[in-house]
Design a protein that fits this description.
The complex is a heterodimer of chains A (339) and B (320). Chain A contains 11 helices and 12 strands. With 339 residues, chain A is α/β, with parallel strands linked by helices. Chain A has a domain of 87 residues. In chain A, a hairpin with a 2-residue loop joins strand 9 and strand 10. The chains are: A alpha/beta (339), B mainly alpha (320).
Amino acid sequence: MAGEPILQVQDLVKHFPLTLGVLYKRQIGSIQAVDGVSFDLHQGETLGVVGESGCGKSTLAKLIMALERPTSGNVLFKGEDIAKLRGKALKAMRRNIQIILQDPYTSLNPRMTVGDIVGEPYEIHPEVAPRGDRRRRVQELLEVVGLSPDHINRYPHQFSGGQRQRIGIARGLALRPDIIVCDEPVSALDVSIQAQVINLLESLQNEFNLSYVVIAHDLSVVRHIADRVAVMYLGKIVELGTDREIYDSPTHPYTQALLSAVPVPNPEGREARERIILEGDVPSPADPPSGCRFRTRCWKAEAICAEEEPPLKPRQGSDHPSACHFAEVKDVVHSGESG
Amino acid sequence: MTEGRSLTGGPTGPPTAAGEAPTPLGDAAGGEIRTLWSDAWYDLRHKPLFWISSLLVVVLITMAAMPTLFTDINPEHAVLANSLEPPGGSAWFGYDLQGRDVYARTIYGARTSILVGVLAMLVTTTVGLTVGIMAGYLGGWPDGVMSRIGDMFLGLPYVLGGIVILSSVAGVRSNPSEAAIMAAVILVLAVLAWPVTARVARSSVLSVRAADYVVAARALGAGPRRLILRHILPNTVAPVIVIATLNVGAFIGAEATLSFLGIGLRSPVISWGVAIADHQDYVRNALHPMLFPALFLCVTVLAFVMLGEAIREALDPKLR
């Protein structure tokens, strides 16, 4: 990955205040949804973000989309800080970064035709396409995502889930963005449709040289599409590496636990595989544990874990950064196959 | 990834082939892009309910505008000898207590009743919808302020509020003009009823505001105007239309209540409400002076409710 990254996320923090009181609101604490996240994204690259629900993945997506303002930190698109833009400049910036939402049943306005939905980006940014050209462009987009251009006057309820998600993708593509944030793009779809949508996303990436941030809780989806993977736990990235590094030689205990829970289709050796079952629930993000946030559920935790927060840095025996004092490579995906 | 490119022509390729239910509207191969409103109009034109109700509304409005088209009898002409005479050859609907022709008075009464009902509905809906959408969209303290003001009016008992406002605007003993008293009645009805519409609109906006398609539009850079007019309003308006059409009937009835109390429209103003109020003491002697205005009232309310229902259905693509 040579050259300047297209998107740089630097030390991003988002705390939601918890308030009490009706007229006078006192702040009694804060939900630390995203707490010091940094990563780079290059042109044409796909970064997968995985983690349990409530770990701050969706907040991260909203921060990148400038739908929420960060408490601190920067989101730089080609060196320009998105989080500080206002008004017209922000609107212009939105052409560069688009989002594909999780649920295709709620992400399309039921009272707009497909032509209206996919054409809306051109109405908001009229400088992109002249009025007379929009219909043709909308039909082209429908064709690109694998829908019939004749369906331009239909309503969303006349389509299946997979087709609706394609409409959402067409809308995201309309402004020819450089980056598309996919917030759980396939988790609401049937498994048979998931592969089609994932493949569509990949072919579009090749065609338009897109960069993706794919947020998902399904590791197999992320593995299929991502070049690099960031594993999040309670608002922090605990491990970051290429898909090979993360899947074949994970060093963080949380990553290992997640991977060991991925279903294995091959029954041979399935029983022999070691499964790491985490105890307890994710702690409240309003009151995260001291030191390492994972220590309350970690089988390796020792006194130092409660006192000192492990930084995200390359550890002994591996090249990719991991935030664990006791990081060591352990292949949990293939361990059963050899034994 | 090997079959990445094959997707466009892949299994779900052209979805028409998948045995999908054909749309009644069909697919435009070369026509222009249709919108919700043009589709709604197309849908309305094919609904008998719409034509029946609009025909009724047109007839009633003609009646209100030009009563002489329907009768040449003077509604003020009273012959006491005919008092409470039942319907017959000389008077289709009979005579009222003062010996006036009930048919003529019912025709002439349409003007005030419909004017009061429709105008009060328009004011109520405009104010209620605006306040409700603002409160729901802005949230926070503007929502708190607007909702509490609405609650204040909602807490005021209807009749008490009517008495207080009307007797201060137009004193019982004074002799205000017909237009002034009608304006006062419309004002009272709107002031006391807008919070209901506002509440319904607000709750509807709240359920729509957080929807993903609003988030997607914001991510595209849509401003508040577009968000409200294109995304929130069309998905909010259905319950408001229902309330608005029901309100027309309720307002005509409420106008009658105020008339009965002697603070609303009063004789010599001719209205269905006044006729019903004036004759309800004589129901056991003669039903007809009350029956016919009441019947017209019912038909009017029914026409507006049916019209509202047809429009609401046409605006919901899922019902097509």
